[in-house]
Amino acid sequence: MSKALRVTDYLGHMLEAMERIDRYTADMDEAAFLESELVQDAVIRNIEVIGEASNNILRTDPAFAAQHEDVPWLVMYTMRNRVAHGYDKVDLEIVWRTIARDLPGLYRQVRALLGAST
Asked: How many domains does the chain have?
């Protein structure tokens, strides 16, 4: 399997995880999110997927990641590590801000990269 194909797979995993987060939180405001452990758990799991896929791109094709340095590859992986390893200290308000402020733009970036990679 070529590196380009692997990058395409990882970008697809990222898009799918972001789409799931969007579906899970579509009719919610921050207060509803903070009240729903089920949605919190689902969102955090998908943040882990996004971060792991980002790290896989960094690891398997660093040239691709460097070529697209405007994508916050390391930030995504760092957030994944924080929610996975610091599971007892997750700041759900930061998670909500990430959903509301960062994911829409990130989704557009990754979707554009996936379109350019196919």
From this structure: 1
